């Protein structure tokens, strides 16, 4: 991909509607909202003027031009730099699973698709699969057939799901399950393809999948050594 990012916004739950409405005004209508809990130490919370309460987490895809515009609005209109308002940041997108899915996720934003982005020495990627509620098992089974070894699931709510029918010819429910899978970059395409083929938007799971570059990991070495040894044994046989 070229010049495409996942934008993450975190704020107090009660203020999330302000951000969602602001994003809609800037042609960002599709995204996912989940709930979290602030965990920072009290002195950090006091410094930033934050309360230790429920947080709203909003994730969506934006182009570089959209981010530049939205960032100015966040600062000037929503006063995001005022302590306690919230934070927003972007993460570069590595790939999207399907042209229709890309069109749905960035509808209304001007974007010319380029080559997939790569970061130097990036050995892993975070695969993000967003599925209809109750279908995480189907998604994970598909991912495992593609080579995934596990994942993490959490609950969220889709924004702009009523627009899905014009892109896919099907309706997508608002209640979502978000599956996070860390995989080797060399395995990413196989895993994403398996999810698209067996749990994609044309299935009851209605899954949309994309990946983000991971620049460093910890805790995967033993698993990877085991996989490499298995591959080596197969080659020797």
Characterization of the model:
The structure is a single chain. This protein is of the alpha+beta class and 237 residues long. It folds into 2 domains: 4-92, Alpha-Beta Plaits (2-Layer Sandwich); 102-223, Alpha-Beta Plaits, CATH 3.30.70.120. The protein contains 8 helices and 9 strands. It has a 9-stranded antiparallel β-sheet with strand order 4-1-3-2-7-8-6-9-5. Helix 5 packs across helix 7. The longest helix has 16 residues, at 221-236. It is globular, with a radius of gyration of 19 Å. The mean pLDDT is 82.
Q: Could you list some keywords that capture this structure?
A:
Alpha-Beta Plaits; 2 domains; 237 residues; 8 helices
Structure summary:
This protein has helices at 16-25, 42-48, 64-76, 99-105, 136-145, 164-168, 185-199, 221-236, and strands spanning 4-12, 31-37, 54-63, 87-92, 95-96, 124-132, 152-159, 175-184, 208-214. The chain is α+β, with helices and mostly antiparallel strands.
């Amino acid at each position: 991909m070229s010049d495409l990012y996942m934008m993450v916004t975190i704020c107090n739950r009660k203020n999330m509607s302000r951000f969602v409405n602001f994003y809609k005004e800037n042609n960002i209508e599709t995204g996912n909202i989940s709930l979290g809990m602030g965990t920072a130490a009290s002195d950090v919370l006091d410094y930033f003027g934050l309360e230790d309460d429920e947080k709203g987490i909003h994730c969506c895809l934006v182009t570089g031009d959209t981010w530049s515009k939205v960032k100015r609005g966040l600062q000037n209109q929503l006063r995001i730099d005022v302590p306690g308002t919230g934070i927003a940041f972007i993460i570069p997108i590595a790939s999207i699973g399907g042209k229709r899915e890309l069109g749905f996720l960035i509808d209304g934003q001007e974007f010319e698709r380029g080559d997939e982005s790569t970061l130097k020495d990036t050995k892993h990627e975070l695969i993000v699969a967003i599925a209809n509620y109750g279908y995480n098992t189907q998604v994970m089974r598909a991912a495992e057939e593609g080579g995934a070894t596990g994942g993490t699931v959490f609950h969220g709510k889709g924004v702009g799901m009523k627009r899905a029918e014009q892109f896919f010819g099907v309706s997508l429910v608002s209640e979502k399950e978000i599956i996070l899978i860390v995989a080797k970059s060399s395995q990413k395409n196989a895993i994403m393809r398996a999810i698209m083929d067996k749990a994609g938007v044309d299935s009851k799971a209605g899954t949309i999948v994309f990946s983000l570059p991971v620049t460093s990991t910890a805790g995967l070495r033993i698993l990877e050594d085991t996989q490499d040894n298995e591959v080596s044994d197969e080659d020797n046989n």
